[in-house]
Each structure stands twice: as C-alpha cells, then as structure tokens.
C-alpha cells in the first residue's frame, strides 16, 4: 500500500548534528535517508561515509538546489547555519518538501514568519528539531504538572542550559560567527531554556521579558552567555541562564503552590533508553525543623527507541497523514517554534535596549 512506503528524507547540510539525525532516520521504521547535499560533492561523500550511508542507495549531491529538485524527496532535515534558514527553508517549502528545521529556526520572528507562511501556503509540515519534546518523560512530567491536586498553580520556573566550550569551538564554530549564527548562546542553548519555560506554562506568553545586565560576548559581538527573567500577570516568574562558558547543565525546576518538579538532563538524557525526574508534593518541615516530612519521589521513564528517533517518527507520521489522507499539517509545532522565537527576540531586544523590559 502507498501509505506503507517510508518517508524519504533529504539532508540539506552536513553539520555534525546531522550525523545524529541520519542515524535516527535510519533507525526509524517509517523513514529512509534518500539523499544528502552539501556545498561540494566531496563533503557530501565524506558525510555519507561517516554515517555508513555510502554503501546504500543514498543519492549524493554537491548543491542544495539539486536535492530540493529531486522529486523523490518527501521531506528535508535542514541543519544549516541560522543565517541560511530563510532562503533554503522557504525554497524547500516551495518545492513541496516537508521541513524538519534545526533550531534556532531563524534570526528573528520576521524571518520565521516568512518560513512558516511558505510552509502553510504549500501545505507542508513544519517542525523544529527540539528532540526533548518527543521523549515520553516530557509527557509524563506534563501530566503531573497539570494535576491541580499534586502541583497547583505554577509560581516559579528556573532553567539553565550551558556547556564549557573549548578553544576550537570558541574560535571556529559557526555558533560564534556573527554572519552565520548571530544569536550565539541565546539561539543555541537558550532556545531550550525558553522552550522549556513555555512548555511548563502551556505556551502562554509572558507579559514582560527582561534581560539580566550580565552578558558575555566574544570579540565579534556574539553572545556567549546571558540570563533573563520572564513575568506573567498572575505573578508567575521564570528565569533562565544559557552559556557556552559554564559547566554542562540542562536543568528545569518548576515550583508550584503545592509541589515542585526537578529534572537535570531535560535536553539530552543521561542515558539513551531511560530518563528520570523527581518531584515533591505536600512537603513540610517536621517538628523542630530538623527534617522534612517527605523525600522527593523519583520517576523513571523507559524509552525505546531514543528521543531523536521518536521525533523523526512523529514527523514522518504527520507527513504520511498529509500525503495519504489529505490531512492538514499539524499546527502545534510551528506554534511552539514561533512562541519560542518571539521570546528569544524579546531577550535580545532587552539586551540591545540596555536591559529594559520588553512587553509582549
């Protein structure tokens, strides 16, 4: 049957992260890597060798245009530098290719809106490649956070995403180049921080965003680390820290009126097939304040396959529904990306305005 045919992916760009997605596409039962494109045929062939695709029937192209013109490509995964997203993502949509786009999705929401409009006009699915949304742990955490008897109203959210980059990264990586990825740490790891805050708040935008007046930049002016606070009218507060200059962190703490949830590895779980988080509810101090009446409960969530495979399979499922059942693209994924981009823009604007509040 036609709907049993795998979704044929083209990979546009041979960034290091693309090796992980190539593996995920290969492991996914509903997908196959059909083509790879780079700016040179030599680089595309090297990538095919690294990913063990050289001996398969994968097509190798020396330009992005050639891949997008391939009529057998159903969808593209695009890990290009952010400054190239607008041109190539719009062109992919115009060529009727469903789009799995690396984050940050664009340099600003104006660019992203053009990408999303192209996807909508051409009836193709859009999704950004934030893998952690697709982990079953994420669904389990949301289930508990949504229980008013366990957590109540969210009051404070703290999140951080950071890693200590080495000299080679700080000198040569595209994420430190103003002409390639001008958002730096804010766009790279900050995307996860903002996304996790909005996830906890059911995609409700904050009323104000204010950057903290402590920003590190490289000599080219690209943000290496920054922090911000987000406020909601119902007195909920969120803070985040993102950095290329600090130890590895991928933390979320959500403190509500009745309980608190904590996870230390929300972006990339410590293990590929299991992940944990902890929570407390109804916590109090015991007599004489010499202890607590409860200890954190740890929840283990088993996942097989890994989250990147689950993301690819969900994306492929949506593409199949569009192709075989005339379904419309799922709107929640572009909505998540757009809201995240809006908040990122507000943080950057606050920094540029001398750390003044930006109202959304």
From TrEMBL:
Judging by the UniProt lineage, the source's domain of life is Eukaryota
Q: Which GO terms describe its molecular function?
A: nucleotide binding
Stored Pfam families? GFO_IDH_MocA, GFO_IDH_MocA_C3
Domain named Gfo/Idh/MocA-like oxidoreductase N-terminal: residues:
7-127
Domain (GFO/IDH/MocA-like oxidoreductase) ranges:
140-262
Per the record, the similarity remark reads:
Belongs to the Gfo/Idh/MocA family.
Q: Which protein, by its recorded name, is this?
A: OLC1v1010286C1
Species in which this protein is naturally found: Oldenlandia corymbosa var. corymbosa
